[in-house]
Write a structure and sequence with these properties.
This protein is mainly alpha-helical and 201 residues long. It has one domain (4-198). The chain is built from 8 helices and no strands.
Length: 201
């Protein structure tokens, strides 16, 4: 006989697991590694990927955790108003990362992906003033669009997690259905558009 309490705990635990490991800076690790690994030589891969992870993952996470500890708020920063400063810190980090990658002559796909993190987060900062669009959904959908551009249909495999991310955010009552749909749609469409416009054919 099914135990509804255990089922609830298992489902909630799975939702929390998905949510925890799909924060945009964490997803960035896999996206940059995949792109750089197949484009760069081994020596350049280590160096350029290190730059990507410093500005695309570590600095945004460190500044967000600092803000969370200082303000004594939850790890998801559920309160929309509290997201402003972590978003600003992330925007600055992504912008500096874009500039550094450009100066170092990184592959266009790598530099443009970092730029997309900057531009998309900048847009989120403005949207966040009146609506809580899903950064999780956008943070998975955006890299998916980048990987589809670089690897073709194989990039779709990365996006298979998008429905799970959307479900987890709604199930945990962090977002509405419309907020996760908007985040996923924006991430896919706008990131894909930026790749096609910014990378010369």
């Amino acid at each position: 006989m099914d135990n509804p309490v255990l089922d609830f705990k298992a489902k909630r635990g799975f939702a929390k697991f998905i949510s925890a490991f799909t924060h945009p800076p964490i997803v960035a690790i896999f996206a940059f590694i995949l792109i750089n690994y197949f484009i760069l030589s081994w020596s350049k891969f280590l160096f350029i990927t290190s730059i990507c992870l410093i500005f695309g993952t570590f600095l945004p996470i460190i500044t967000a955790l600092f803000w969370i500890k200082k303000r004594k708020i939850d790890i998801d920063i559920t309160n929309r108003v509290e997201r402003t400063f972590p978003l600003i810190y992330a925007i600055i980090s992504y912008l500096i990362g874009t500039a550094v990658l450009h100066i170092l002559g990184s592959p266009p796909a790598t530099t443009v992906l970092m730029f997309c993190y900057f531009s998309n987060t900048l847009v989120v900062l403005f949207i966040n003033h009146f609506w809580k669009i899903s950064i999780h959904a956008m943070g998975v959908a955006g890299p998916t669009a980048a990987l589809i551009y670089v690897f073709g249909y194989y990039g779709v495999l990365f996006g298979l997690i998008i429905p799970f991310v959307m479900w987890s955010r709604v199930y945990l009552k962090k977002h509405s259905l419309y907020q996760v749909l908007a985040g996923a749609a924006y991430g896919l469409l706008v990131t894909g558009l930026q790749f096609y416009l910014l990378i010369p054919v």
